[in-house]
Design a protein that fits this description.
The protein is of the alpha/beta class. Helix 1 packs across helix 2. It is globular and about 60 Å long. Bound molecules: ligand C2E and magnesium ion (3 copies). The site of one magnesium ion (MG) has 4 residues, from strand 6.
């Protein structure tokens, strides 16, 4: 197409490609200013203990309120933040926000309250990911390491790289815990599970979506749960949207569930209202 446009000074860029490139450049420029302009906020989604209905865990999910484009999905800007290295500053910001909320929720709701933050591979590898600064921040707040969980994806652990192993060991050494996010979608190798000290497996929502008795998804969930427990890990099911899914997962021994059935991710104040609203009520819903 570039050729047919003759003297196109953008070379082989078609108008569509050119526009995509410009959109991306604008996104990068906007993203650079977003932190200073206070355009990020954190959404919290409860992680529910299935056997009791108790809630003492939540996941922190970043939100970008763009002045013109409105709410931009993390699926759109996290990859760009990773490629440009901005993810490190953004990740530090969300960690500190989440830590301050944990302190509050430990005091007012549950002494063992825990919040997880997502750490993408670029973030894990580029930053001084022995996490001394994160741990120092927790200590300054008077919080133990186990008040925070770091969610990583299995791709990071695939090759059992010594550097990654060292970083993970240092992280666990502070008491902070580790979750494998989107478990089951990355790679077929399970060997990393014995090489690394992992606390939680999060079953990807694609296995939960069509969960039904005697289905292959049910078999996979059951197998993941048994395996995780034998290896000393707890299991969190993602994307729980129906009572039927919750009941099947609970019957299979799944420890925790997260999904729209319980609550959508909402800002801290609304999350707190949600917690208070169900305190004293029938917690097992
Ligand atoms: P994730 O860590 O696997 O987060 C779960 C995603 O599933 C969230 O999407 C959440 O809103 C969504 N979800 C929760 N319950 C349900 C449900 O019942 N049904 C359905 N269909 N979806 C549900 P979200 O917030 O758009 O985040 C997308 C991804 O962006 C996250 O996937 C994570 O990989 C990444 N992300 C989000 N915040 C951060 C962050 O602060 N740092 C980094 N590095 N990545 C982040
Ligand atoms: Mg996650
Ligand atoms: Mg996930
Ligand atoms: Mg994901």
């Amino acid at each position: 197409a570039a050729k047919s446009q003759g003297g196109n000074r953008y070379g082989y860029f078609t108008p569509a490609m050119q526009e995509a490139a410009q959109t991306r450049l604008r996104l990068i420029a906007d993203l650079r200013g977003a932190l200073a302009a206070d355009q990020f906020w954190v959404a919290y989604q409860p992680i529910v203990e299935l056997a009791t209905g108790a809630v003492y865990k939540a996941e922190a999910l970043i939100r970008w309120q763009h002045p013109v484009r409105g709410l931009v999905s993390p699926a759109q800007f996290i990859p760009v933040a990773e490629e440009t290295g901005m993810i490190v500053a953004i990740g530090d910001w969300i960690f500190r926000e989440a830590a301050r909320q944990v302190k509050r929720w430990r005091a007012m709701h549950h002494p063992a309250f825990q919040v997880s933050v997502n750490k993408s591979p670029a973030q894990f590898l580029s930053d001084d990911a022995d996490h001394p600064e994160w741990f120092e921040y927790l200590q300054a707040l008077g919080l133990p390491g186990e008040s925070m969980v770091v969610e990583i994806t299995e791709g990071l652990l695939l090759d059992g790289d010594a550097v990654i192993k060292g970083k993970l060991l240092a992280l666990r050494g502070t008491g902070m815990q580790v979750s494998i996010d989107d478990f089951g979608t990355g790679y077929s190798s399970l060997s990393y599970l014995k090489k690394f000290d992992i606390d939680y497996l999060k079953i990807d929502q694609s296995f939960v979506r069509n969960l039904a008795p005697n289905s292959s998804d049910m078999a996979l969930c059951e197998a993941i749960i048994v395996m995780a427990h034998k290896l000393g890990m707890k299991v969190i099911a993602e994307g729980v949207e129906t009572e039927a899914q919750r009941d099947l997962l609970a019957a299979a021994g799944c420890d925790y569930g997260q999904g729209y059935l319980f609550a959508k991710p909402v800002e801290a104040e609304a999350f707190e209202q949600w917690l208070l609203g169900r305190a004293g009520g029938a917690t097992a819903s």
